[in-house]
Task: structure prediction
Amino acid sequence: MIAVIGAGAFGTALSISLARNGPVVLWARDAEHVEEMQATQENARRLPDVALPQAVTVSSDLTCLAEADIVLVSVPAQKLRAFLETHGPKLAGKPVVACCKGMERGTGLRPTQVISEHVADAVPAMLTGPSFAHDIARGLPTALTLACGSERIGEQLQARLTTPNIRLYRTTDVIGAELGGALKNVIAIACGAAIGAGLGESARAALMTRGFAELVKVAEAYGAKAETLAGLSGFGDLVLTCTSAQSRNFRFGQSIGAGETFDSGVTVEGAATAEALAEIAQDAGLDLPITRVVIGLVRDELNVREAMDMLLQRPLKEE
Ligand SMILES: NC(=O)C1=CN([C@@H]2O[C@H](COP(=O)(O)OP(=O)(O)OC[C@H]3O[C@@H](n4cnc5c(N)ncnc54)[C@H](O)[C@@H]3O)[C@@H](O)[C@H]2O)C=CC1
Ligand SMILES: O=C(CO)COP(=O)(O)O
Result:
């Protein structure tokens, strides 16, 4: 049986799709939320208008983990450690698949590194790539990356987590898969800000392309392979997130560009990841101009015009 931790939009969507293969337990920490979902067969708080199939059991009781042979963890990256500090021992020895896209503030760690710190004999893996929760839940076709350091377990996870509407590609480059997914959210905030401020599609294309170069520079410095970054988890997700108003990171940037307020309850992974990235980039001697302006915009220390001037007035160089 597969257990999915975190009844947010993505955990719920994955549960719905995986239920086409067999039984799934979807765990939420809030018992009231669980009761609501059981009563309505819907996660109205996070993924409204999609029915939960019978094969999904919703629970706030983590004893269900004993029966699970694969555990997907779908809480925001900045909340992963808090969950594992309390419940990590229950996952010992199991394949634990991180479904969150981000880098931890204060440590710069990737989700699978946080898992390894808290789960004994962990077999950490990563599920990432271009996909909006609503698309997955509605059965629309998607292609994602399953990254696992163990070729053997990666193959098993690929087989078990492929569903009629999720086609999984496999890699052992966990670093590349994680960093591509984390960093594209930072670039999506920059693109949203450009569009929100009316700077136009040409500016967006420039930010996507130079943002991709920035993403590759960071990921390669940490040992990722260039071909992973050119794949679904890097380039693929960058394209989706920077061009769609379905993306929360993009919409957050758009609200900054337009000078509008944004609901602070919405998960925006790129804001914290930009800070985490800047913390480690300084030590690694990496110059990350787009990440720097995103931090300035998010902290409200820069307006979009100043941010664009900072980018445009940098010394000229080869592409
Ligand atoms: N929504 C989407 O379309 C996609 C989201 N993702 C990734 O999935 C991750 C989760 O995002 P969403 O599900 O969309 O967010 P969400 O905001 O819809 O839900 C987050 C869930 O995590 C739970 N949570 C927070 N802290 C927790 C803790 N300490 N213990 C247990 N549960 C906790 C919350 O109660 C909430 O149900 C993010 O890293 C995101 O980047 C990836 C692909 C698509
Ligand atoms: O990761 C995603 C798409 O692949 C979801 O993006 P947002 O978190 O910006 O909504």
